[in-house]
Structure formats: C-alpha cells, structure tokens
Structure of 3'-5' exonuclease domain-containing protein:
Amino acid sequence: VFVTDNDRQQVLALLPRIPETSLAQVIRTFDVKIDDPQITQNLAQKATELFREDPKLGLRFAMQYNLGKDIDMPILVAALIQNQETSVLQKLFRKPTDVEPVLQYLERECEILVERRETKGGKHTHMINFIKKINKTQIGGGLTKRHVENGEFKNMFLLMDMAMLNFMFFSRMKQTGDIANWNELLVLFGKAHELFQYDIFERTKQHFPSKQWFRTQFGAKSYFNTLCGGGSPYLAPEEPYNLAKDRKAVPEAFLTLSQVGTMPLQLYMVSTQEELDACLTTLTADSTFVGMDFEWRPRLFTIDTDRCALWQLATDDLCFFIDMVKLPTTAIQQFAAKLLSAPNVTLIGYGLSGDSAMLKTATGDASINLSNVHDVQTMGKQLVEFSPEYDLKGGLSGACKFWFGNALDKRNQMSDWERRPLRKSQEEYAALDAKCLLPMYRKVKAKITELQLTKNTGKISVTSDVKTGQNKSSNPNGEKNNSQSKSKRPRKRQPKKKALETCKVQPGTKR
C-alpha cells in the first residue's frame, strides 16, 4: 500500500484491516505526519493493541507517529518493564520529556497498590517483583538531580531506588529508630509512602520474625503510623514485644564525652570567613593536639553525591564544626592548607583514606593530602605483632570499645549532616568522633612504647613514628642502635610538644 497526504481517508479505512504482521512495513512506508485527530485516535488505538503483542514494535510505532499524548503509554512502559527490554527502556530516558509516561505508569501502580490494600488487604508480592525488574533493567540513567529537585518524577525515583536501598541504612534504623531519619523519609517519598511501607514490611518480616520492630521499638510507632497514613495493614496488631528476638536484651552503654576528656566541652559552629579565621588563630596559637573527623550525608540513592558536610576539629576543651556546606570552597582550601602545614599543630585522625577523598572534593584541590596527620588506626596495627588482641574490628567504634570500654553511639551516623541547624544529638556525636581520638592516641602511643621497652628489656627506648607507621630506636645515651640497617638513615627526633594550654576563641563565635 502506497500512501500520500491525500490518502488520509483511505489510510483511516485501511488501518483496521491491516494485519499486525504487516504493520511494521506500514510504519516504514507511511512517512507522513498526521494532524487529523480522528486518524491519530485510530493509530493510538492500534498502537495500544500492538503494545500487548510486541512492546518494541508498539514503541516504535508510537514514536514514529508522535502518539505520546494520545496513546496509553503507561501500558507500554509496563510491558517493557515486565519483559525487561533494557535497550528500549534506555531510549525512553534520553530526553527528560520521555520520562513522563513512566511517571504516569508508576503513579497508576501506586493507586492500584492502595486500592488492592483496601479491597483485599492482601500481600502485594507483584510489587516487589516489579521493583526487582526495574532494578535489573537499570532504567534510572535518564533521571537527573534536577528532576528530583524540581519535584518531578518522585514516584519513579522512589520505585527505581527502592530496590537499591542500602540495607545498611535499615540496619541503622534497626539500632536507632532515629526520628530525624523518619521525617526525612516522609519528605523524600511523598505520596508514594505506600510502597515504602510495604518494602519495610518485607524487610521486617525477613529479618525480624516478631514483625513488631518498626511499630514498637524506640518510640517509632507513631512515626510509622504517620508514614502509613494512620495505620499499617501489614503489621500484626499490638502485642507484647519480645526484645530478645531482635537484639540484645540489655541495651549497650555507649561512650560519652565525659569519658574522654574534661567537661564541659565548648562547641563552635564555623560558618563565616571571620569565624574560620578565628578558628585557625586559636588552633595554631600554641602547640596543640587536634583530633579531626569528617561527616557527610549518607549516599542512599543514585542521584546523591559524595560531599563533605562537616569537618570536626577538637582539642582537649574545644570543638570546632567547620561548615563545609555554607563556606566557599576557596576559604576551605586556604584554611586546610594552613592548618595541615602548621608546625605546632599535631593532627590526629582515624582511617584517613575516606577522609582524604572527602577533603579533596570539598577543597577542589587534588594535591591536598593528610600525610601529616597521625592515623591512630595505623598506629594500632603496630600492636598486632605483640598480641592478636590488638587486631581490632568495627572501625572507630570498635577501637573505642577496646580502649575505653564502651563503643560509640552510631545512631546519628546516617542522619542528614547538611541540614542546619544540627540537632544536639548530632553535635554530641560529631564532637565525640573527633574528641575521642586525643586520649586514644595517647593510650596507643603509650602502649607501643611500653611493649617495645618490655621486648627490649629496658635497654632500648623506642618511640613510634606514627606518621609513617615505622619505629626508630636509640639507647639512653643517644648512640645509634647497631642492629639498625646501615642503608637506612635515622630519622630526626621530633621536637617535644609543649603542654596544651586553654584555647581562647574570639568573642561572638560561640553558638
């Protein structure tokens, strides 16, 4: 069949009679833009029928005739997802406008989910399977951060990422039931909280046999009910909660600021250039030991970026919170360069690989490094040669458990560190992360010296070079140790640090 602009009425009459096997040939041949609403409606109906038979061909037909507004595109998207047509789906996401049909379908799925809950009250395993298929097809590449910031495609954003949610986040929720996290999730998921609710139910059923945790543990019941729109049909009715089934019966005591130094500890938020200058002046005024740590918002979703939100710098009686969100990059870069090169400041960190990457991103300077920072984790590894008990697990929290008897309270680790102002619990958590490094550094260094002296029967005094993870030896008279390799030149002895004096902060900087 050969057609031209003058054959529209004939085309309209012929379309219902064209067998589906020949429709592809018609698509290639009929290269004419159709403006007639009646013809468009018929083409849309034909394409919709074709979607059910062959999603690829249906999509091709719909795009050929620009039928996006007239055709039942959600049906097409459903067919593509169910058949896991990855290549076709990726084509849908090349333009932001192409995502709109998928959004329509996902909104419809949300409505179906609510409707089935009200009518059947049943379990929606089809939704979990659907989420898994979305994950396998990897259709999230077309979404950009701009879409989400503009409030578009929220439901699709939820569904695509729900299957990829880091279970670590839910394990943090298991430990804490953090109210701020609940509120953040409510805002993030918006109207699609029904899907989030069901996903929580599935995870809870799998990992917590009592199925009661999210309603009863840590006062999260009211927030979960709010999340579920007044009550969840998935969770069992109220019943006595068996805490021992889901976690230890005796809550663990956590480390506090009073256990790692003098109190009260003065906290300062540094968010202006003047406050940053005052902070640098205070830290570099005298010989000072400074514990440092970084905090950033957890990267839970595909659109999230790794960006440092807070830089904590703690002395024995002060703790500065460098606001990496509000301060300009150039100011942070200059501050970091001066602090890291200050000769009278001894910086102490723990596990510096991730911190180094965050600082480079925050300053925009790839040449900045933390080679001058004393890594307590690296120091601790020197103790393993003396006893396996020093082979610590669990990161900084595990180290605190070993050296101080209590682990860190990690309830705020996965909270939003870019939100201002910080909650009091966030401030205490951030300050403790940096402050605990000071006594830990002293304990580890003293233990290294003690074990080395014992090993050498008191004849040789060994000081740990914590920056390089090596040891240097000398006898009490200052003579060179004969056992030292001649090919290695002895390092210069570090100048003795003066006693830490009380730091003074310029007026107006205290919160």
About this structure: The CA atoms of residues 472 and 488 lie 11 Å apart. Residues 257-439 form a domain with the Nucleotidyltransferase; domain 5 fold (CATH 3.30.420.10). The mean pLDDT is 63. The longest strand covers residues 288-296.
